[in-house]
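Appendix C reproduces, verbatim, an entry submitted by the partner laboratory led by Prof. M.T., so that reviewers can inspect both the input and the predicted structure.
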Amino acid sequence: MRPIDKICRRFGVETVRGLDRYITSVDQQLMKAGLWDYKNSDYENNKLVRELRDLALDDLTADEKYWVRQIIWFWYHHAVSCALFKYSNRTFAQIFAVEALKYYELLPDHPNKITPLLYYLVFNRFEEAEHWVQSFPLDHDEAQTAVDILMDYHLAFCLKV
């Protein structure tokens, strides 16, 4: 049995796409409850990402590689926010942002537009962050989220006296 199949079985799903659906549900429950935390090694999302980061992608199909990268990207994407807003740890936020952007760029035509914004912010590239947000069409799904993140970031990190 391939390592990816063992991972899927451990998490109670049959395919890597099923793994993505499952872990996205777990992730969203943790986010909505304010419990998402990269430091909690008992959380399913953290366990899964540890396993996937160590996985050799050579024996995966193109579709499986896509979903493995999607899962890892999503984890790093949320880890940036956790490091910033939960722990005020810019160093970890920067490390996570670099990784999130790396995986994001491996997912062609990815609809998420928040990862680059987080990257700009944690590296104090404010003009690029503001330009990025202004480039969103007003009806884009993430336009308001982007504005909110920009405002939250300014309030949390730029306006401290």
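The mean pLDDT is 92. Additional entries are available on request from the coordinating office.
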